[in-house]
Amino acid sequence: MAEAHQAVGFRPSLTSDGAEVELSAPVLQEIYLSGLRSWKRHLSRFWNDFLTGVFPASPLSWLFLFSAIQLAWFLQLDPSLGLMEKIKELLPDWGGQHHGLRGVLAAVLFASCLWGALIFTLHVALRLLLSYHGWLLEPHGAMSSPTKTWLALVRIFSGRHPMLFSYQRSLPRQPVPSVQDTVRKYLESVRPVLSDEDFDWTAVLAQEFLRLQASLLQWYLRLKSWWASNYVSDWWEEFVYLRSRNPLMVNSNYYMMDFLYVTPTPLQAARAGNAVHALLLYRHRLNRQEIPPTLLMGMRPLCSAQYEKIFNTTRIPGVQKDYIRHLHDSQHVAVFHRGRFFRMGTHSRNSLLSPRALEQQFQRILDDPSPACPHEEHLAALTAAPRGTWAQVRTSLKTQAAEALEAVEGAAFFVSLDAEPAGLTREDPAASLDAYAHALLAGRGHDRWFDKSFTLIVFSNGKLGLSVEHSWADCPISGHMWEFTLATECFQLGYSTDGHCKGHPDPTLPQPQRLQWDLPDQIHSSISLALRGAKILSENVDCHVFPFSLFGKSFIRRCHLSSDSFIQIALQLAHFRDRGQFCLTYESAMTRLFLEGRTETVRSCTREACTFVRAMEDKEKTDPQCLALFRVAVDKHQALLKAAMSGQGVDRHLFALYIVSRFLHLQSPFLTQVHSEQWQLSTSQIPVQQMHLFDVHNYPDYVSSGGGFGPADDHGYGVSYIFMGDDMITFHISSKKSSTKTDSHRLGQHIEDALLDVASLFQAGQHFKRRFRGSGKENSRHRCGFLSRQTGASKASMTSTDF
Length: 803
Known about the structure:
Elements: H1 3-9, E1 15-16, E2 19-20, H2 27-44, H3 46-53, H4 59-74, H5 83-90, H6 99-130, H7 145-158, H8 179-190, H9 196-212, H10 214-227, H11 233-242, E3 254-257, H12 268-287, E4 295-296, E5 300-301, E6 313-316, E7 323-326, E8 332-337, E9 340-345, E10 347-348, E11 351-352, H13 355-367, H14 387-400, H15 402-409, E12 414-417, H16 429-441, E13 454-458, E14 464-468, H17 475-493, E15 513-514, H18 521-539, E16 541-548, H19 553-558, H20 563-579, E17 585-590, E18 599-603, H21 607-616, H22 623-645, H23 651-663, H24 669-674, E19 681-685, E20 707-709, E21 717-723, E22 729-736, H25 744-759, H26 766-775, H27 780-785, H28 790-793
Parallel strand pairs: 8-12, 12-13, 17-19, 19-21
Antiparallel strand pairs: 1-2, 3-14, 3-20, 4-5, 6-7, 8-9, 9-15, 10-11, 13-14, 16-22, 17-18, 21-22
Helix pairs in contact: 2-10, 4-6, 5-6, 6-7, 8-9, 10-23, 12-13, 12-17, 14-15, 20-21, 20-22, 20-25, 21-22
């Protein structure tokens, strides 16, 4: 989501105070360290790796094999074909009385070797099977005979009841694409946005790169791909995120919203108690690997490595680069309320506190009348400051207030109890949603600890939200956790009729611990400067959220089209109408088909999309002509998306080539130009991954409304969208108020118009436009998307408190 901003900014992130930092380590040493980090990660989770490493077998399967060998031996059969006799001969001779023991040991060794060989064979076979990506390239809804055969074999070798990390050893490594193919695809992607002169010059630079430097840089990447777990992901984390010196707020973090139309309880402490309990239940399942791995088509597993750092994780600032600190466990959360920090325990005698007990503790914090100490109220603004500045201040803070700092950084996660309400309101639905998004993305600049892996935000009216730091994982991981949290706290834990958590309080629990900060005088000015910078950054963000309810995924499915491609091409039309020109468009796609894969860029502004947009703006073009061009554009987008998912994208390969060139101190004008590009339109779809958790038919309003992120460019837009059920799409748009070229509300209107214009190309969608125009455009979004949903909310058995 927010990664596009970081991707654009990673090159400047290699500089400090205006002076360029040289990467002095030899490239071979860096490749060696990458592999070493991979092996250390494997060793740190040895027991989990053992349990998952023998999957699809289990330790009981060894016992079964050993018993079978012993039974055969008892029946005077030798399944080892003489190998056990040779093993017995190699064992020490302990005398005749231990002759039977030698036989048992020989059977144990033979069974273990045979068991290991069988497991290794299963892993190799499954890895070879998972390396097949032909199923991605097939038309939607069609399946060839090879793919059916492949699915059957994957089902045979995959075993039953996998744990979260069961497939990690069987996932293939991300391939290094052909450099010639990557350059060709890159030139194709920039052709629509460059003039003839600029394109010719770029093509010359590309040919020079292929002739002089490409083969050498490619050789190092191939070497790394064989040695490290992933040839790009660790460098992506370091150079795009951890070396960035920009503030995390708006630039790197992203947010997730609560249910759009309902709030299960208006009690702030109760909502916080249930939500924290649900989050810690998720952590418990995560630690025990009880969360099933994500499977595409119900069969193809995705990499689960990013799940490891959801909890107990903090991004620690450094002068040159940050690092991620992850603890094995933490039994408390850090809570912020009215400028004060608290350490609140979440466990009692090694068991998780009940939701009612957690509510009691949160209520004690809300009722605490003590005022904030001088400068304590704005202390968290330091986490929204430039990273180098915060790193220097943190050194003093760690000396003067080590215990309080450790309580925050060592917490499972951060909780902010906001004093203001948030969410959709009847009086002004448009403004209230925009303010809600802004509060989640930036807050007031000093009420979020942006270094934590995520901050749970609970507003005074019981509305929830999440602010997520981006370096440790990508949106689908936090989204998976958030879906579980909303479904669990609402449908499984539930609330009593008076709005409190179910159960009884525990008066024996100690009061939450108020953290004491001994802030030296030299830090006071730094806090004031950080707060001023955070407020400027926050006030400059223009957020706009709107639910589009005229049609959704079900209509697009009836048109036999990909829902994501439909939206992406419509966004091209909307942006062209907004700016009068085409631009490079960033769409995030996952590469978790591969071990430790993260994301790839889909360059959605294609020649086919541009041709369609021009046709839509040409009054002489008929609807059938535009529809034919639209289908061609959708097919092209689908091809790019599938190529990105299968490791054949453009941008991560060029990024890794650029990093190698920096290590080798090679100047490449082509790679320099590639990474100086600006993404004026950054987009992302938020997938709903666990629809089984929500009953969208009986409770259509209890679906997460997605989230958003800041714009990637000062004169650009950030657009995310989520399909809520079958008949609604919620859009989250951001831009900079300081830009005279952008306006989030204006783009929102263009998106709505574009969706209706595209839908009207289909016979089944022509009535949408007539209905829309018949009702009048003014406030139509919220009349259709807000008021019509009130009847749906009445179906819910829980109380809606937004109205």
